[in-house]
Design goal:
- The complex is a heterodimer of chains A (about 375) and B (about 270).
- Chain A is about 50% helix and about 10% strand.
- Chain A has helices spanning about 1-15, 25-30, 35-45, 50-55, 65-95, 115-130, 185-205, 235-250, 255-260, 280-290, 300, 305-310, 320-325, 335-340, 350-375, 380-385; strands at about 105, 140, 145-150, 150-155, 160-165, 170-175, 215-220, 230-235.
- In chain A, the strands form two sheets. In chain A, strands 1-2-5-6-7-8 form a six-stranded mixed β-sheet, with helices on both faces. In chain A, strands 3-4 form a two-stranded antiparallel ribbon.
- Chain A is globular.
- The termini of chain A are far apart.
- Chain B is mostly helical.
- Chain B contains eleven helices and three strands.
- Chain B has helices spanning about 1-35, 40-70, 80-95, 100-110, 115-130, 165, 175-190, 195-205, 220-255, 255-260, 270-274, and strands at about 140-145, 150-160, 170.
- In chain B, a hairpin with a 5-residue loop joins strand 1 and strand 2 (about 150-160).
- In chain B, helix 7 crosses helix 9 (about 220-255).
- The model of chain B is unreliable at about 1-5 and about 270-274 (pLDDT under 50).
- The interface of A and B includes residues 84, 104, 107, 120 and 135 of A.
Chain lengths: ~375, ~270
């Protein structure tokens, strides 16, 4: 069965190397679990970036070089002098005992930084720590974890893992966005939480026990407008559930594949003359066979988002998840306007939402008329209404 | 500086005098032309051109002097070569240290600038020098060694004359070295009659991350840092020493002369990692 799935995914991808996942891409999987297009592309390891460019919607984004440099500098500062600043924070946040200062750098193994070797070394060190050896250490810098995603091995590198003698590991994530007056950017915290959840999941798999790794991660960020770090515990239980669901779904990709015509192919390979095997039109047609579930949030996390947005133009989904949910059963903006204006007759299922739409249209119409009659504010309101 | 300022004032005055002269000459040229005295006008015009050229020259001189003034006065060039400066900082700290800390220590207690980029190539140069003529220098700057694989520890510099135990980094060593450095630094600051603000700042950087060492940046005293660092060091010292001594014994037995200083250079470390 597994072989059959593999063959189907390989056929879908064509004769090119599957794209490898990392913590960011795995985290992005969870942002829109209902999207079959994303699920199929990720399971097959399709290079979505290249695919988007081929069908005429190249993604211009990517992490800025300045952001990367700033992030690295802050991480280096927190870890300087034997993690001095971090130890102070952890003693406050995790009540780390004063004897707990062991530090193991897993960045390289004897001057060698091959991934397989580092993973083996990280694994051996972390398992030894879990087994409770005396010289186990407390802080593990840049361990290399490994996780299976849709049958492909993925290497993951958390910033740091702290180990408490109560036998609990904590994932520590160092991010360079500021926490101002106890408040940080919600979106950034959410993405840090989901990334950390990926690490927690991978570490739990490595240790073979869910209890060994805390679901509270420690987020270290600059405080206010200074460079001074502060640490906060973040509960990632919810993110873990979503992540597990999505990973299981990738494993059970068969049901999604069954719904597709057998000839669908997103092959991005080139022939001997360096010409792409499939034309953009063919690729667009193939993508059209795989249902997408576009929402504006996709723009932040999916390479195909611009393509899907274009495809979904005129649908209620483009207006956001809440609008789509409110207007369940009414798929397009035109249909919603038609129902509201009374030019379309609602089916039985649409009766309730039609009543709501008409009421809204009436209130809106009345307020627009009132606004138009009151001199002075009329142009402003008309503009807002437009 | 005074001389430079005097020269500048003189040049400005000369330029002003020339401007007045140019104005007078222009008036004289106009009057000569109006009076129909062509010969006098020609002579005056030649004089005007000369004055204008001189004025241009004076402007250039002023610009040059301004540019000279704008470049900051460089601090006195350090008298010692880079490796000696690094050596001094390491001796002060008394434990393996990262380049960033070495630079901070240098800036707190010495004059002159230390360029980070040059520190990175230093270790390679030292190794090359040792390999071509072993032990020809009284001491070498070498990497600290990891306790498990006896490989060079990333980004930590040490001094070759230190005993092997001190150059080894075990799991507890980063903290122990941090506390040791804090103690040495506090002792050094205590000895100084007037410690510089940079030195106090450096001491606070250590004190901030040692429990009960100081109440705040202003309340940092060397004695407080000494007491707190010694108290914490006592907790870790024994365990750390046993790690280091065991590794040092192994290193002396297994490694040749070069590797004892610069770490095991084996690339095949798979067996050891398992």
């Amino acid at each position: 069965m597994q072989n059959d799935t593999d063959t189907r995914l390989r056929r879908l991808r064509g004769p090119v190397q599957p794209k490898r996942h990392n913590a960011r891409t795995i985290a992005a999987l969870t942002s829109n679990p209902g999207c079959a297009r994303r699920g199929v592309c990720d399971a097959a390891g399709v290079d979505k970036d290249a695919l988007a460019a081929r069908v005429g919607f190249p993604v211009r984004a990517g992490q800025s070089q300045f952001a990367i440099t700033r992030g690295n500098a802050f991480e280096a500062q927190v870890k300087a002098d034997g993690c001095a600043e971090l130890l102070t924070l952890l003693r406050e946040v995790l009540n780390l005992e004063i004897t707990e200062v062991g530090y193991t750098n897993l960045d390289e193994v004897g001057g060698n930084d091959s991934q397989d070797l580092r993973h083996a070394h990280s694994r051996a060190t972390l398992l030894a720590a879990a087994a409770g050896r005396d010289d186990a250490g407390t802080l593990f810098d840049h361990p290399l974890l490994r996780m299976e995603v849709a049958g492909n091995g993925v290497y993951l590198e958390p910033d740091l893992i702290a180990f408490q003698y109560a036998g609990i590991f904590h994932v520590i994530e160092i991010k360079s966005f500021a926490v101002i007056d106890g408040q940080a950017d919600g979106g950034k915290v959410a993405s840090a939480a989901i990334q950390s959840a990926v690490y927690v999941h991978a570490l739990r798999r490595l240790l073979g026990s869910d209890d060994a790794v805390s679901s509270d991660i420690v987020l270290v960020c600059p405080k206010d407008f200074s460079n001074k770090p502060c640490a906060t515990k973040v509960d990632v239980r919810k993110q873990l559930i979503v992540l597990k669901h999505q990973l299981n779904r990738l494993a059970g990709i068969d049901t999604l594949l069954d719904a597709l015509p057998p000839a669908v192919s997103l092959n991005l390979a080139k022939d001997d003359a360096d010409r792409p095997v499939r034309t953009p039109a063919e690729l667009v047609e193939a993508l059209g066979c795989i249902p997408a579930r576009y929402s504006p949030e996709c723009l932040a996390s999916c390479e195909l988002a611009f393509f899907c947005r274009d495809e979904a133009a005129g649908e209620t989904a483009v207006l956001g998840k809440s609008v789509r949910e409110e207007l369940g059963g009414v798929d397009t903006v035109a249909a919603a306007l038609g129902l509201a204006a009374g030019s379309l007759l609602p089916s039985d299922e649409q009766a309730e939402i039609t009543a709501l739409l008409r009421a809204t249209a009436r209130i809106y119409g009345e307020s627009a008329t009132t606004a138009a009659t009151s001199v002075g504010s009329a142009p402003l309101l008309a503009q807002a209404a437009a | 500086m005074l001389e430079c300022g005097t020269v500048s004032r003189v040049t400005t005055e000369a330029a002003e005098a020339l401007e007045r002269r140019i104005d007078e000459l222009r008036t004289a040229v106009r009057q000569a032309v109006s009076a129909g005295d062509a010969e006098r006008a020609r002579v005056l015009r030649a004089e005007l051109r000369r004055a204008e050229n001189e004025w241009d020259q004076a402007l250039e001189d002023i610009a040059e002097q301004q540019a000279e003034k704008a470049t900051p006065v460089r601090p006195t060039a350090p008298l010692l070569p880079l490796r000696e400066q690094v050596h001094q900082a390491l001796v002060l700290l008394g434990a393996p240290a990262a380049p960033k800390l070495i630079i901070a220590v240098h800036e707190a207690f010495q004059v002159g600038e230390m360029v980070p980029a040059r520190l990175t190539s230093l270790r390679r140069d030292e190794e090359r020098s040792f390999r071509s003529a072993p032990n020809s220098r009284p001491c070498y700057l070498c990497p600290a060694l990891t306790y498990d694989l006896l490989a060079p520890a990333r980004g930590l510099l040490a001094v070759s004359t230190w005993p092997m135990e001190r150059r080894i980094v075990g799991p507890l060593s980063p903290r122990v070295d941090f506390l040791t450095s804090a103690i040495r630094l506090a002792e050094h600051v205590e000895r100084l009659p007037n410690p510089s603000p940079a030195a106090i700042r450096l001491l606070w950087r250590f004190a901030a991350n040692i429990p009960d060492a100081a109440a705040g940046p202003d309340g940092t005293s060397p004695s407080g840092v000494l007491r707190a660092a010694k108290a914490e060091l006592e907790i870790h010292a024994d365990a750390d020493r046993s790690h280091r001594e065991a590794a040092a014994k192994r290193a002396k037995k297994q490694l040749d002369n070069v590797s004892q200083l610069f770490g095991s250079q084996l690339r095949e470390v798979g067996a050891a990692a398992q």
